[in-house]
Amino acid sequence: QSNLVSIAPMLTKLQRDCATPLPVLRHVADAMADDMRAGLAVDGGSDLKMILSYVDSLPTGNEKGLFYALDLGGTNFRVLRVQLGGKDERVIATEFDQVSIPQDLMFGTTEDLFDFIASGLAKFAQNEGGKFHLAQGRMREIGFTFSFPVKQTSIDAGILIKWTKGFAVSGTAGKDVVACLNEAMERQGLNMRVSALVNDTVGTLAGARYWDDDVMVAVILGTGTNACYVERVDAIPKLQGLKSSSGRTIVNTEWGAFSNGLPLTEYDREMDAESINPGEQIFEKTISGMYLGEIVRRVLVKMAEAGALFGECVPEKLSTPFMLGTPHISAIQQDNSKDLQAVGSILYDVAGVNSDLSARKIVVEVCDTLAKRGGRLAGAGIVGILQKMEENSEGVMSRKRTIVAMDGGLYEHYPQYRRYLQDAVTELLGSELSKNVVIEHSKDGSGIGAALLAATNSKYE
Ligand code: ADP
């Protein structure tokens, strides 16, 4: 049986260490705004890279014609086509396909990887028909979402800094990924071209903006996390003379690297120390889907060791890093039954542990504590962005309505997390101002968003 006498104080300490009362949220929001300012001043000026997207015109709804999108960000790549009909007809038709990337290509050469992608794209383009029509004399244009660290140099060019997420393709780092794709398409005899290279947050912003002019910020909360927003060109000192016809441009914050003033625990520090990138992406490690389950697991292991939470020994499965995923802790929190039957099954299936009701109750509390901290800190980050925008009279005080477009599996599937995020935004802004801010799920907007950016940045306009 669990020894509640020693576990209860551990839970209390965890809750204290993870607490996010209003002053902590304020500090995080202020620090986020400060770091954004520093990152806009000079490259390398802050934890936040504040990467220029070169996207300075967003979709209006008037876009017309056939456009493609290509999304490479993990073990799958996705292709999509959309036929746009302008203000009245809007999205006439879309079609998409998904291809998984063979393991060996993730460790192969640049040419092999891009040839594979180009041939997948060629196959997809071949089946175009029905409602899809390319205007006479035009080439098919692509919005290319490439979710790896890139130094963007123009709307349609960007140099790969390094592969991440398990990719180790030789010869790509330091090269323009658009040129790599263009060359592969030429080798395939495929007559298409990339008109826009976009980060997935920027794609989400563009996809949501197509439907509503008040979308100013986009946030992804999935495996990782990132955010982008609309900034005024004259508020970006490091831009040095680069002009934008609209006077505005999208800035990709790379906010996962934020680290200032976060309430962290011994469990966070240990997880970070054992990670592949110690000391990096601290905000991401505190709020995003890849890590929430793992932090919970670490807490449960300590409780099992110190207080026999699940009987005398610590189950081996529970001791395996990343055994407990964020989908599991979300499922644990959805159990409203009296005896927490579902919690018991998840613990047994995932971690191989038998639990009594008192242990299950503690597990639920631990999950809630970390979801609450994550959601509230994400909310504070959003308010930090809104505060920064306020300096140029484009924030919530000055606008009647501001929409924050949200996407990602964590936001989509974890209702408690979503509620904590909204609560923090409301607390920080106050009930009056927060009425002007709409935090809205924009599901899978990034694919269509990339195609829309190919349209807005078409070579033919
Ligand atoms: P990615 O961020 O990998 O591109 P997604 O936006 O679909 O893809 O996010 C996937 C992530 O969302 C998972 O890694 C997981 O952390 C989180 N997630 C997925 N399902 C759930 C769920 N039911 N509850 C909570 N989090 C979830």
TrEMBL record:
<dbReference type="GO" id="GO:0005524">
    <property type="term" value="F:ATP binding"/>
</dbReference>
<protein>
    <recommendedName>
        <fullName>Phosphotransferase</fullName>
        <ecNumber>2.7.1.-</ecNumber>
    </recommendedName>
</protein>
<dbReference type="GO" id="GO:0001678">
    <property type="term" value="P:intracellular glucose homeostasis"/>
</dbReference>
<dbReference type="GO" id="GO:0008865">
    <property type="term" value="F:fructokinase activity"/>
</dbReference>
<feature type="domain" description="Hexokinase C-terminal">
    <location>
        <begin position="217"/>
        <end position="455"/>
    </location>
</feature>
<dbReference type="Pfam" id="PF00349">
    <property type="entry name" value="Hexokinase_1"/>
</dbReference>
<keyword id="KW-0324">Glycolysis</keyword>
<feature type="domain" description="Hexokinase N-terminal">
    <location>
        <begin position="11"/>
        <end position="210"/>
    </location>
</feature>
<comment type="pathway">
    <text>Carbohydrate degradation; glycolysis; D-glyceraldehyde 3-phosphate and glycerone phosphate from D-glucose: step 1/4.</text>
</comment>
<dbReference type="GO" id="GO:0005536">
    <property type="term" value="F:D-glucose binding"/>
</dbReference>
<dbReference type="InterPro" id="IPR043129">
    <property type="entry name" value="ATPase_NBD"/>
</dbReference>
<dbReference type="GO" id="GO:0006006">
    <property type="term" value="P:glucose metabolic process"/>
</dbReference>
<keyword id="KW-0547">Nucleotide-binding</keyword>
<dbReference type="GO" id="GO:0005739">
    <property type="term" value="C:mitochondrion"/>
</dbReference>
<comment type="similarity">
    <text>Belongs to the hexokinase family.</text>
</comment>
<dbReference type="InterPro" id="IPR001312">
    <property type="entry name" value="Hexokinase"/>
</dbReference>
<dbReference type="GO" id="GO:0004340">
    <property type="term" value="F:glucokinase activity"/>
</dbReference>
<keyword id="KW-0418">Kinase</keyword>
<dbReference type="InterPro" id="IPR019807">
    <property type="entry name" value="Hexokinase_BS"/>
</dbReference>
<dbReference type="InterPro" id="IPR022672">
    <property type="entry name" value="Hexokinase_N"/>
</dbReference>
<dbReference type="InterPro" id="IPR022673">
    <property type="entry name" value="Hexokinase_C"/>
</dbReference>
<dbReference type="GO" id="GO:0005829">
    <property type="term" value="C:cytosol"/>
</dbReference>
<comment type="pathway">
    <text>Carbohydrate metabolism; hexose metabolism.</text>
</comment>
<keyword id="KW-0808">Transferase</keyword>
<dbReference type="Pfam" id="PF03727">
    <property type="entry name" value="Hexokinase_2"/>
</dbReference>
<keyword id="KW-0067">ATP-binding</keyword>
<dbReference type="GO" id="GO:0006096">
    <property type="term" value="P:glycolytic process"/>
</dbReference>
